[in-house]
Amino acid sequence: MRFSRYREIIPEFSVFCRSLYASLPTHLRVNTLKASTTEIRLRLERRGLALAPTDQTGLVLLVASLPQPGTLLEYALGLFHPQALSSVVTALAMAPTPDHLVLDLCASPGSKTSLLAQLMKNRGVVVANDSSSTRVATLTANLKRLGVTNTVVTCYSGQQFPLHGRFHRVLVDVPCSAEGTLRTGVHGTLPATIRPRPGLVVLQRALLLRAFDLLEPGGMLVYSTCTYDPQENEGAIQFLLEERPGRVKPIDLDFPHSPGLTRWQETMYDPSIQHCWRIYPHQLDTVGFFLARVARDL
Ligand SMILES: C[S@@+](CC[C@H](N)C(=O)[O-])C[C@H]1O[C@@H](n2cnc3c(N)ncnc32)[C@H](O)[C@@H]1O
């Protein structure tokens, strides 16, 4: 089985494995830059959609059976954005405020960028960067559709993002092996492999270092992946702590999760790494995720 190497680290491993047979739920994040949650919810319910709120923020609606949310008029109007609950949690962990200068280093297609702008009430400034010019076009289109006006888009290799200024918050949502997106659906089987991407771990660490270097003293970054692989997760944070004076901070949100690992196979990690979050689909029914909050001291 593809995930058997994680048997020792994923709690209730057999329950985790069973959870992969269910389809990924569709979550819609309401866009309060355009209308209130109640208005958007009523519009969608008038279309006959069965919706359930899924979190205490009131920002995410779980919709039963909506294979193509992008075909709805409300999507084109920018009233909602289809977004995994774990992706929403990641943006919330950034805790941006309307006076912040925020960098999203790997931003396309802009799900988290647009939620950051929403949390900032379209104030402050967000710099949304992605190294892929084609993906930057998608990012720009999404920001426009969602009515985001506090964001500028750049197209640098994140690990070489210019060091001209410093940010209160940096999100580094790195390219990863994406194991957390793997589900069989009710009838299918797990894809046997995700194409190996040589150099991925090296790239993730370079992006994380640059993200830290772009922080104001007293600033905070969030590092995230949608994978379970400790090398791409705790291993990256351990690397950062060895290279820079960062401190791993608790994530003060209330969603089911497991703590970061302090050991994987023969490797020990700094005890503070247990403040990181591992989001598993049998604990929170969404894409599997890892997130870490790291502060730069004053
Ligand atoms: C996990 S996706 C980001 C998802 C996005 N944060 C969101 O929530 O919509 C990773 C992104 O990193 C970008 N990327 C890959 N290598 C990069 C690099 N060296 N510098 C900046 N971005 C990079 C990819 O083009 C991709 O869009």
Itemize the secondary structure elements and their pairings.
Blueprint (H helix, E strand, L loop, with lengths): L12 H7 L6 E5 L6 H10 L4 E3 L6 E4 L9 H4 L3 E3 L2 H9 L7 E4 L6 H9 L5 E5 L3 H13 L5 E4 L12 E7 L26 H14 L1 E11 L8 H10 L2 E4 L8 E2 L3 E2 L2 E2 L8 E3 L9 E8 L2
Parallel strand pairs: 5-6, 5-8, 6-7, 8-9
Antiparallel strand pairs: 1-3, 1-4, 2-3, 9-15, 10-15, 11-14, 12-13, 14-15
Helix pairs in contact: 4-5, 7-8
The site of S-adenosylmethionine has 19 residues, from helix 5.
Structure description:
The chain is of the alpha/beta class and 298 residues long. It is 26% helix and 22% strand. The chain has eight helices and 15 strands. The protein has helices at residues 13-19, 37-46, 73-76, 85-93, 111-119, 133-145, 200-213, 234-243, and strands at 26-30, 51-53, 60-63, 80-82, 101-104, 125-129, 151-154, 167-173, 215-225, 246-249, 258-259, 263-264, 267-268, 277-279, 289-296. The strands form three sheets. Strands 5, 6, 7, 8, 9, 10, 11, 14 and 15 form a nine-stranded mixed sheet that branches. Strands 2-3-1-4 form a four-stranded antiparallel sheet, covered by helices on one side. It has a two-stranded antiparallel sheet with strand order 12-13. Strand 12 (263-264) and strand 13 form a beta hairpin. Helix 4 (85-93) crosses helix 5 (111-119) and helix 7 (200-213) packs across helix 8. The protein is globular and about 55 Å long. The relative contact order is 0.15. The model has no long low-confidence stretch (mean pLDDT 93). Residues 87, 105-112, 130-132, 135, 157-159, 173, 175, 203 line the site of S-adenosylmethionine (SAM). S-adenosylmethionine (SAM) is lined by residues 87, 105-112, 130-132, 135, 157-159, 173, 175, 203.
